[in-house]
Structure formats: structure tokens, C-alpha cells
What we know:
The complex is a heterodimer. The longest helix of chain A has 20 residues, at 445-464. Chain A has helices at residues 48-57, 73-76, 133-137, 147-160, 187-199, 243-249, 295-305, 356-359, 378-387, 394-400, 445-464, 524-543, and strands at residues 15-17, 25-27, 39-42, 62-65, 94-96, 164-165, 180-181, 204-205, 253-255, 259-265, 271-278, 281-286, 290-292, 327-330, 333-337, 352-354, 369-373, 406-414, 422-429, 435-440, 468-473, 477-481, 507-509. In chain A, a hairpin with a 5-residue loop joins strand 19 and strand 20 (435-440). Chain A has a single domain, classed as FAD/NAD(P)-binding domain, CATH 3.50.50. In chain A, 23% of the residues lie in helices and 19% in strands. In chain A, strands 8, 14, 15, 16, 17, 18, 21 and 22 form an eight-stranded antiparallel beta sheet that branches. A five-stranded parallel beta sheet of chain A has the order 9-4-3-13-23. In chain A, helix 1 runs parallel beside helix 6 (243-249), helix 1 runs parallel beside helix 12 (524-543) and helix 4 (147-160) crosses helix 12 (524-543). Chain B has one domain (14-31, 41-319). Chain B is built from eleven helices and two strands, in the order H-H-H-H-H-H-E-E-H-H-H-H-H. Chain B has helices at 9-31, 50-81, 91-108, 116-142, 149-154, 161-178, 193-218, 228-245, 253-279, 287-293, 301-319, and strands at residues 187-188, 191-192. In chain B, strands 1-2 form a two-stranded antiparallel sheet. In chain B, helix 2 (50-81) runs antiparallel to helix 3 (91-108), helix 2 (50-81) packs antiparallel against helix 6 and helix 8 (228-245) packs parallel to helix 11 (301-319). The longest helix of chain B is centred in the N-terminal third of the chain and has 32 residues, at 50-81. Chain B is globular, with a radius of gyration of 20 Å. The interface between A and B is medium-sized, with 34 and 29 residues. Chain B: Keywords: Membrane, Transmembrane, Transmembrane helix. Chain B: The chain crosses the membrane at residues 89-108, 120-140, 152-173, 225-245, 257-277, 297-317.
Amino acid sequence: MSDDPLITPRAARGRAPDVFHPGAWVPMKEYPQREPVDFVVIGTGAGGGPLIARLAEYGYSVIGFDAGPYFRPLEDFASDEASQSQLFWTDERLVDGANPLKMGANNSGRAVGGSTVHYAMVSLRFRPEWFRSRTLLGYGTDWPLDWREMWRYYAQAEHDLSIAGPVSYPWGPKRPRYPYRAHEINGAAEVLARGAEAMGYKWAETPLATVSAPRGDSPSCVYRGFCRVGCSTNAKQSQLVTYIPRALAAGAEIRDLAMVGRIEVDAAGRACGVHYHRNGAWHFQAARNVIVAGYAIETPRLLLNSATDRFRDGLANSSGLVGRYLMTQSNQAVYGVMDEMVRWNKGPPSLTITEHWNYDDRKDFHGGYCWMAQGPLPVEWSAAMSGSRKLWGAPLREKMADYNHQVGLKMVGEMLPHPDNRVSLANEKDRYGLPVARVTYSWHDNDKAMIQHALGEMQRSLELVGAKDIWRQENDTNHLAGTARMGNDRKSSVVNADCRSWDIPNLWICDGSVFPTTGGVNPSLTITAIALRTADRIQMLQQTGQLNF
Amino acid sequence: MVNTRTPTGAPRNALALLGSLTGAALVGALYSRSQPTVAHSPTKTPVPDFAKANLAARRLNRAAGTLALSVLFDSALEHYRGQFRNRAMYTPLVTAAMALGVSAHGTMDQRQMPHVVRDTVYVLTAIAGLAGTGFHLFNVRRKAGGVSWQNLFYGAPVGAPMAIGLSGLLGYLSERVRETPSGQTPMVWGLPAGRVVGIASGLGMAGTTGEAGLLHFRGGFHDPFMYLPVTMPPVTALVLGRTALGPAGTERRATRWWLRATAILGLSGSAFHAIGVGRDMGGWRNWEQNILNGPPIPAPPAFTGLALAGLAALSLLENHPDD
């Protein structure tokens, strides 16, 4: 049988890959398909991973499904950008709208561990006011979650992921000390720091999910700089090396290369299992609860694809909001060239950050943004130079020679929720015969105003440190959110604060799609914190007899 | 809940084994043979003995040499890692090597007089330590963010050059003890030498604890054994301080044991660091990189050098009651 993880499932026959030791395995419990398990979790990323682990640790029977392969980072990951595109979800999707999203590297993952296998590890907390942005800041919509409760779950997530962050974080309310110390900053990160100081803004080392000292079987980060195409040393604390091994040890099962195509609903209107495609055939796994954690495209797609006579518009969609309020984050950048050697690809790409404009409200647009130091690898860099700067041939080649002197600042900005930005189903079918997602996206005035503000600020920062040949990358976006928003009532939201759908009491949605607003920071830590909370809530509801299974 | 914080396999076994060995050695130090002392003599009449002064001086040479050895390898490693970008970065290698040489000479030298080369080298070494501290401070201050945790962690280690400075100081004190005329209590700068050495090594111990504390904090105290060098040596420093300021001529068995335990800790620290090197990417097979980026193997014996100096101070105080 092939050992290609993209062809043959690895989690099978009572064992799963031991990601820390080449060729080794860890035992894995397996559940029969016909007997319902307590929880089926669809997706093993920042939302699914913690849920699978925590629910298994609470003693529930849990199966985590992922459409992607079960990688062994020590063996499967090459120091090669092209080869590592195997980590992205590159199945066909239709994109339209005034500003169609570019799907792939920045906003998807297809692997056990989800996109955390290749994310930039930036682990930030929301600004507390964002959980009540409508009431306190006058835009978007309020979350049904209290920031003080979230603060506790952030701390738990930071502990579980051994986040390496600054000794004291300069913005927002007090937070406990990060479990690991911040990494040494590289040349590109120092440029951000000097620029911020010249502007009178605070800066900090970015809290990152890669260890600055050994943890368990993870060695400390060796600053290869290939973080965003998969960490081949296991220093990165992705779901694949943190919650997933915990989940297996606690008795959960992982099914890799298992694409869930449909959630089955019984006559009583309760979810009763999932149809999934694995090893070339469709199977059915019975379940007492189904948790969808497929992120902002695949989650609504699955819910919409699971429509029945009873739920004609898709599951959990009585509000009509499944797929709506899709948000991305603006990810524009300003680049320049320094006289001195910088070597921006050394180390994690975003070692320093300024959250100045997340916490300063003296601006003429809603929402916030931060910016971080950059270190794109050569292929990604040449793609930005050709795609955004329209360089080709000899001029591109000439500019590429400046690679080791390049610096850049890249924003992560809050785009506002809009009902017309959405995920719907196209007529076209994918390789499983399932309708593909149509992703419609347009920037609105507030989004454009923020982007222009950020570009101006980042450019000023680079000018102040003496960067030359400055140019703006104006078209990039990254993280996704929305499409199954949480809220306080069934009319204006898809799930409640516990990520439980209003319509089907044993159907849960727990990933970035529940975000009512997306904030000006990378979302993964917030997704994980919500997942940890959801696991605790499920346990509490079960103990107080409010789940009935 | 499964433990994901401690390593599995060989590193875990090595840590357990080394932890047990260290514990056994610390207990074993309790039962090791004590130096005969004069503390039991019924009268407190000083019985200065030049052989004993010489023994104390040679012990100080040994302490200075241990520190110099630690600094020689540590600075070689760290400055090689820094690619000797500034030529001044060769200085500690030269001074530490010279201090090591004269310390070896002094340890074997049973004569009662100081040696001009030794004396000069030790003074130069002490000055180099002070100058190095200045260089390192300058390096930290000029980085973005100035004196910040980031730069204290990853800039030039501010406390490190004082290790070679202390080596020079201990050597200098050794020469002063050695030149004590027969029948007199060794004196330095008008003070009893035992007290001066005791205070110097106690302060050095406190400073070295600060350095270990800073760097182990940088490592997030990810292994429980990392708390040892920030808990045991401060007690050593306090005990040394108390001894140096307290009554002389009494036998201090607990102090002696604690100093020996600290000396052992410094040596086992190197072994702990070697395990740490093995936990980095590629383990010992990738030693060329991991020796540079992992925990510094030559650093912990600085504690051993200072504990040896403390033991020398203890003998001086026991043998030369001055009050």
C-alpha cells in the first residue's frame, strides 16, 4: 500500500502517526461506524483540534474527521515552497464580487491540524471592546461572549500552545505571563521596532505559537523561516503536535483523508451522523452530536449541502444567515529596501508587531488593524512582485537580487461584516460530486478607508527608518470569518454563545465562522479559546442534564 | 490529561538518571571527609600556619582556574557564535587562557611568595572583566528597545564578563594570602583575607545566580531542574555572607557541605545542559549547531569555581580566627 499521506489514510488499524518520531506510531482507539459516538467533529484545525482533545479528556467518545492527510512533519515537509503547497485547500471554488478573494495559502488548510500546520503562529487576543463593538465602538455587532470569560480561555489556549510572547504586553488589560519567552527578533522585526519608535508608537515581540525552548518532544525553534509552508522541526505548536496527540492519548479517533459531504438529520430533526468519503467510497458514521469546524468556507458549504425536505435552505439556517457576513482581513503591505543586509526570511515571519491602531480610536473609520514585520520566502516574494508590482522578466530578476535587503510591514485589518459578502453553492461539482462553494466578496467604504490609512502609516514607518524603493501591495487579504455567526437570538444568528445551533440542538458549529466581527488581529487564538470554552460548556450542559444524549 | 511538557524516550531517561545522580552526589557530600580544623582547640589562640596559608592560596588558585576554564570555553563558544565581529571579542579567550595557565601554576606552587607573572595576569584579567561588562552593556543599550528583556535575553549577556573578572579577583586575593608572613593572619586591604574572600565569592555567587536566573527565565524554566541554580546558590551566597561576617575559628560543617553541594551542582549543570543540547533539533548528531544554540555547556561550572573559593574562605576563617 502506498505510504503517500495524500493517497492512503494513515490513521487506521488502531494506530496513528507519532508525529515526533520518524516512522513511529501511537495507539489509536477506533469506533464502529454503526454505533453512534458522542461527538463527531468535522475539521481538526484551531477549532476542531481543541474540541476533540477536551471532549475526549472529559471522557466522551469522539471522532475527528479531516479531509486532509495526516502528515509527519519530520519526514514529509520539504524546505520547498512549491512542494509544500500540499498543505493548502486548493480544490475548486468560484470567487466573485468586486474584490474576489484569492483562495489558498492565506485562508485555508487541508491537513490534520488544519491551517495551523502552515499558519504564521501569530497568537493574539482580541481587544476586549471588540466583543461589544456595536455598543462600545458603534460598528458591527455585539458578541454573546463576555471578554472576561474569554480572557480565561485565552490564557488556557496560550498555556496549551506554549505561546512565546513578551514579558509584558503593552496593549489591553493585564494578561498572565506567556508560558515561553519571546523569540530573538530578526533584522526585519527590528526595522518595525525602529519605525514604531520613530513614530512614537509602542511595539512588542509578537506572541507566537512556536517554542523558544524545548517543550516535550518539540525542540526549540531554529529559525529556518519556513513556518508558513509547514514547520519540519515540530517547534511550531500546531494542532497536529499539541491537541491532536492529546486527543489520541485521551481515546479520540482521527479519520484522515475523510471528506464529510453531508450531515444526516433524523425524523425528529436531530443530527444523527455524517456521510463521509474515504478510501474511495462513501461511509456513514452515526453520532449523537455533530460539531462542524471546517472554517468559513467549508462549514457553510457543508451546512448548505446537507439540506433536506425539512431544512430546505440547509441545516441551522432558519435565520437565512448561513454563509452570510463572510469577512476576510485586509492584508496590505508596504515594502522597501535597506542599505544593510536584513535577511528577512530568517526566523518566523512576524516577530514584531504594533497594535497601535487597534487601541487608538482617533481615526475616521471603524475597526482596528495592526501591522507586523514580514519575511516572505522567495517564491512568495516573486509572486507579490509580479502580481502586485507588475514586474516581469529582467526588471523582476533585478529586484529579486535585493531579496536579502528587503523589509516590509503587513497589516492585519478588520473588515466589517456585510450580508452580501457570502458563501453560497455553485452548480459546479467537485471530485466528490458535491456542489462547490461560491465565494462572493466586495470591499466597502470603511474597509477601503482603513486600508488607505494603514498603507500611509506603514509607508511613513518605513520612510523613517531609511528604507528606499518603497512600494505598496494593495490587493492582499488573508484570514476568514463569519458565515455562521453567533448571537443572542435565533433570528439574527446561526449559533448561540455555546456554538450550539438554534435550529438543531445537537448540531454545533465551532470555528472562525461563528465570529460576528473579525477584529484587527489574527483569529486563530480566539478560535481556540472559543473551542475550549465550548468543550467546557458542553460538559457543563451534560452534567446539568441539558444535552439529553 | 496526557503530559505534553516533558520529553519522552532518551531525554527523559537521561534527565531522570542525571537528577538521581546529582541528588546522590549532594547527599554523598555530607559524608565526605572534612578537612581537619583547629576549631576544637580549647583556647582561641591563633595558630597561624604558613602551610595552611599556602594551602588556602592554592585553593584560591584552583577556584580562579575553574572560573577561567568555564569562561574560556563559554566565551569561545559564544564569541564564535557572534563571529568575532569585533576584535575585542578575542580578549576573554586570551585572558581566560592566561588566567587558566597561571592558576594551574599557582595550584602546584608550594612556595610562600607571590609570583609577579601570576599577579600581573590576575590583575589584567580582573580589568578585562570590568571592561567586558562595559562592552556588553554598550551592546545592549544600542539595540532597538535599549535595556529591555529582549536585549537582556539576546544581546551580549551583561553578567557574563564578570565571571572572568572574578577569576582575576580570586587570583589576586590568592597572591595576597600567599605572601602572608609566617605566623600572621592573612590580610587583604587591611581586612582578614578569609572574610574578604568569603564576601567576594558570596557576591560573585549572587551575581552568577542573577545571570543563570535571567537565562533560565528566557528558557521559560521549561524543565523543573532549571530552578536548582536559582534556589541553591542564593542560599550559598547568604551562608557565605554570614560566615564571612560572623565569628571566625568555628567549624561550620553545614556551610562546608552546602558549598560542596553547590560545587557539585555546577558540574552537574554542564551535564544537564548537554541533555538540553540533545533536545534541540537534530540532537547531538547536529552538535555543530546545537552546541551554539542550546544551553551553554561550559557556563554552569562558574558556580563550582565560586563554591571552591567559598571553601577556601571557610578554611581561612577556620584556621585563622581573627577575633
